[in-house]
Design brief:
Length: 634
Amino acid sequence: MLQSLRKGASTWVVRAFLAILIVSFGIGIWQGNSLFKTGADTAVAKVGDAEVTAQDFQIAFDRELRQLQQQLGGTFTREQAIAFNIQGAVLSQLVSDATIREAADRFDIRVPDDLIAREIAAIPAFQGITGKFDATRFQLVLRQANLSEAMLTGQIRAELLRAQLYGPAASGARVPQIAAAALYRFRNERRTIDYFAVTPAAVGTIAAPDEAAIDAYYKANPQSFTAPEYRAVTILALDPAEIARTITPTEEAIAGTYEEHRAEYVTEEKRDVDQIVVTTREDADKALAELAAGKPFAEVAKAIAKMDEADTKLGLVTKGTLPTALADAVFAAAEGGFGGPVQSPLGWHLFKVNKIEAGITRPLEAVRDEIAAIAAREEANLRLTDLGKALQDELASGATLEEVGERLKVPVKKVEAIDAKGFDRDGKAIALADSPQLLPGLFEAEAGRDGEILDTANGGYVIGRVDAVTPSALKPLDQVKAEVAKAWEVAERKTRQQRLADELVGALNDGKPVAEVAKQVAAVPGMAGPGQRSGDTIFSALPAEIVTRLFTLDKGKAAAAPALNGEDIVVGAVRDIEVAEPGDNAAGVKALADTLRNDFAGDLAAVLESDLRQRFGVSVNETLINSLLGGPAR
């Protein structure tokens, strides 16, 4: 987190900093949106005497879930996160942190409070206009982020402890010269490759299969000719978008909605501002006089305030980004004019307004259609609440989905056949309400029973019922004979194509020229290289498999691999090899060794942590973890 804070180098970075903190600490937990139910503060794991509490685990899991939802979309669920074993990664990191705490306690490693204070003071988000630590801003940012000073201090302390414990291992990492030289030779060897493609057409015409071949292929590949399980289902969805389309907002509702959303149609006035900050009113008056006399702003700032020109630049600001007194002075000045002097806890401020970008307000008439749509959606959401309750009541009374749809005036969708992937018998996708649990639930449910009411991605509700089940079954041969014959031909062509490519590779290995061998399949050979074995764009037209194989062969030898288009087979041969001699580039070998040092340092730190875990002992309370995740205790 400390590194993230330091990246916020702008003077006015509160909003960006808050975004980082929200992701880092999962602020939704303190807002009542925790993934887990509140439970006893019991250890889910222990490293020696250092505990990982249930609360630690809850917060960390919730944070990781939120980050994944930001990356993958809000439909990524808790159940999916658990299926991906996110809890395992979270627990591993928490155990690593506990290992650090236990080692610091046993080895008497301490982080002085004044060092933590210096680290906090160096974080740009906590600095004022002058670039120095501002206690008022510090408290404001923490308060806005729902963070305590103790929480932030704990994070920084943990990072510094980790650096003290693992730093010596990292600094002691050394890369053996022989290892660096060997890797240099491996990475920098360059080869030139001759190649050509064997296309499916190269095998010529393939006669149609006889009955015996069709029957054999059908029996050998039953999965290719098996119809999936289909289900006939009934779906009732309460869709806010559909409800909104039936609503015509009143003029009063449109006007009210515009007022509620007015800020979205206002572009605030912005001003490009420079500032000078001095300690006394006398210096401020002197600076203002010199500015009024025509002296350059940067020159006055340097002479009186000892500020470099770069330090005077506030850039584009809005009124809301400045303290009230400073904002009033800045936004009272004319373009090209000066504002101030104004006093703040940081000193006396003078401003120059370099440029004004006027604010713009889009009137209601210009956005009427957009506002009407918003008003309709908001009204639909209100109605949706009542409809959802009515849906529950009707189902509880024993009404069928058809009866509920008729009473609530909501259409009921009948699907004659759908498979587990959402396709009909013709392979066309069937549109269902956007709920990730709907289709899997339909394929787990018993026929004739209503499923659960599910939330949809757009804030609505959906419920389904399985009406009938058509089991998966192997299609009779007489129904799919043409399909089997076609599949046989594709497979047979691929087999012959591979056999031909292998024969051509053998001819190249026997010493025949590439051009002569390529001519046998009417191919025009190409050449690629010289290039390196890994990630070299000069080989981008070739499949990675053949490049890898050809870097293991002697000059003149050949190999084959499927082409990037999925149809051809590429045959390639090593035309030339350029050996990379470490002795010819001592600087390059050293640079590689320096790069490897970080990898070696990471490996050493990992070995040290593993040793510490064995020494201290690690225990994990799986029963508690399972209960926190909502699964069965075991």
